[in-house]
Specification:
The complex is a heterodimer of chains A (177) and B (371).
Chain A: H1 4-25, H2 29-49, H3 53-77, H4 93-113, H5 127-135, H6 139-160
Chain B: H1 2-11, H2 20-57, H3 73-83, H4 94-110, H5 129-136, H6 138-150, H7 154-185, H8 190-195, H9 212-228, H10 240-243, H11 253-278, H12 296-320, H13 328-356, H14 362-369
Helix pairs in contact in B: 1-2, 2-3, 2-11, 3-11, 4-6, 4-11, 6-7, 7-9, 7-13, 9-11, 9-13, 11-12
The chains are: A mainly alpha (177), B mainly alpha (371).
């Protein structure tokens, strides 16, 4: 990697890491959510740099269009809507720091010691291959994940239903509102 | 883009010493500026046409003071928007309030990158074209939600929540209704989808007439997209009679302008996608624009594409001023109980059709009867 690609990599990486740090330290949960958005966008930029275009678009679609929107909804719909001072509590500092350091060590060891297969100057469309793999080799995990999501969806719908007796017949008709 | 940069470096001796990536970058900026100018012009003129169409449909004159027949009204509006004081409510969340319009505008403008304006006229022919549009337009939701919340105004918050719920719900039928075009072309790239509809069949080569399911999915897409862009009859987020103006009620000046622009940009993107995916894009019957000499082919196809897209925009305006607004529960019922199941059934129908008839549409089969 040389030339502008290197700068783009460092810019995207800096955006990812910087925004992630902001997520951890910002006291306002909404600001943290927006910082998380930039972190996800930085990761998408890294994917683009790796010529994983489909993955990059998925990153934006799922994380920015889905997860962040969900986070914002959760904050807005919570009871104390005007209260934005939902801080990141700092309890259990020592165990938390230990776990973080150990995790950091494991991840950085894995990142440094993995023998990566480096390919030079390859840019091929990935969407078709990903689709084919999802329909053949990874069909079972794909379907299991779908079923899991469906179960979560049904559970959420069930939980959010108000406790009231079953509506009388015709309650959904236009004229009876 | 890089191929263009290489040919430019070869053609202009002055550029010989400049690194290739710099020329490419410069080209990208130029192309982005051209598209931005196009988008802004479309949005300006579009706002005027919208008001004129509204006037015609409601049997009144519409804007008629600035310029002949009020034709320069959009310039006056633009100047007003730029010069107006940028008000921020005292109790607003200043940072998010300032940031929100940019999310909305970026989300809508980024989709212009893959608009197939004509033969070879596309800023970036991404091979994930349609998917990219679906992804970047989801940024609009964030902008709208943040705008509604940070204004610290109940109307704005209600409008923002409604808008976000609506966009998130209708994203699913929109995506599902576009997949038939992707299946027929075998590619996500918008240029490939347009190319798959060219040929000797004329307008019957368009995906709209490919088979009954694609005909149906065009209307499903158009309905769902109308809702996704918060157009009447689905304009609950800004329902001026109940929410004043919805999420952008506290905005003034250029920040309001950005929301306004993103709304018109979305409108154009919907028109673009329906043109490219179902109405043959820049194809015209019995004529291949690619055979014209020099840049005439590109210009001709650009004209054809814009004519089709603008027709779609006019139809959207017509619908907008004709139908009354839905209620919130009706809106959600329509998305989840009708549009989502219908689009899934439709997708299944198209897939089965392509499987059974080996990808051939009805017009192609009829044509093959006559040799």
């Amino acid at each position: 990697m040389s030339g502008p690609a290197e700068y783009i990599f460092f810019a995207a990486a800096a955006m990812t890491v910087g925004a992630a740090i902001l997520v951890a330290i910002l006291p306002n949960i909404l600001y943290a959510a927006v910082a998380l958005l930039f972190s996800f966008a930085g990761v998408a930029g890294l994917y683009v740099l790796l010529s994983a275009d489909f993955l990059a678009a998925t990153q934006i679609l799922v994380y920015v269009g889905g997860i962040i929107v969900l986070l914002l909804f959760a904050v807005f719909l919570s009871n104390r809507i005007s209260d934005t001072k939902i801080t990141n509590p700092t309890h259990f500092r020592l165990p938390a720091a230990t776990i973080c350091l150990v995790l950091f060590g494991v991840l950085s060891y894995a990142a440094v010691s993995t023998p990566y297969a480096v390919k030079k100057g390859v840019y091929l469309p990935t969407a078709a291959d990903i689709g084919e793999l999802l329909m053949t080799r990874y069909l079972l995990p794909f379907e299991v994940a779908s079923v899991l999501l469906l179960a979560a969806l049904i559970g959420a719908a069930l939980l959010s239903r108000p406790d009231r007796p079953a509506p009388e017949k015709g309650d959904m008709e236009e004229g009876k509102r | 883009m890089e191929a263009l940069a290489i040919s430019l470096v070869n053609a202009v001796p002055l550029l010989a010493g400049v690194p290739l990536w710099a020329v490419t970058l410069l080209l990208m900026v130029v192309v982005a500026a051209v598209i931005l100018v196009f988008a802004l012009t479309f949005e300006g003129v579009g706002s005027l046409v919208l008001r004129k169409v509204a006037g015609d449909i409601q049997a009144r004159i519409g804007p008629n003071r600035v310029g002949p027949n009020g034709m320069l009204q959009f310039l006056a509006d633009g100047v007003k928007l730029v010069l107006k004081e940028d008000l921020i409510p005292a109790n607003a969340d200043r940072l998010l309030f300032k940031l929100a319009p940019y999310f909305a505008f970026v989300g809508s403008f980024a989709a212009f990158v893959v608009v197939p304006f004509g033969v070879g006229l596309i800023a970036a022919d991404l091979n994930i074209g349609i998917y990219y549009v679906m992804a970047v337009t989801s940024l609009v939701v964030i902008g709208v939600l943040l705008a509604g919340w940070s204004s610290n105004n109940k109307w704005a918050l209600l409008g923002g929540m409604r808008a976000a719920a609506q966009i998130v719900s209708y994203e699913i039928p929109v995506g599902m209704a576009l997949i038939p075009a992707v299946l027929i072309a075998g590619s996500l790239s918008l240029q490939d989808i347009v190319r798959s509809q060219s040929g000797l069949l004329g307008i019957f080569g368009w995906n709209l007439f490919h088979n009954p399911f694609t005909f149906f999915s065009f209307f499903l897409y158009f309905t769902a997209a109308q809702a996704e862009t918060n157009q009447t009859p689905f304009d609950l987020p800004e329902a001026e009679s109940e929410l004043v103006s919805g999420y952008n009620v506290e905005y003034s000046g250029i920040r309001f302008g950005l929301f306004f622009l993103s709304e018109f940009g979305d409108m154009f993107i919907v028109a673009t996608l329906s043109t490219a995916c179902f109405l043959g894009g820049w194809n015209v019957p019995f004529f291949n624009a690619g055979t014209l000499p020099w840049i005439w082919g590109n210009l001709f196809s650009l004209g054809v594409f814009l004519a089709k897209a603008f027709t779609m925009v006019l139809i959207m305006m017509w619908v907008r001023w004709t139908l009354p607004r839905l209620r919130v529960d009706q809106l959600m019922r329509m998305a989840w109980k009708y549009l989502v199941p219908l689009t899934f059934v439709n997708l299944l129908g198209v897939s089965l059709w392509l499987l059974v008839f080996k990808g051939k549409g009805i017009p192609a089969m009829i044509a093959s009867l006559f040799g």
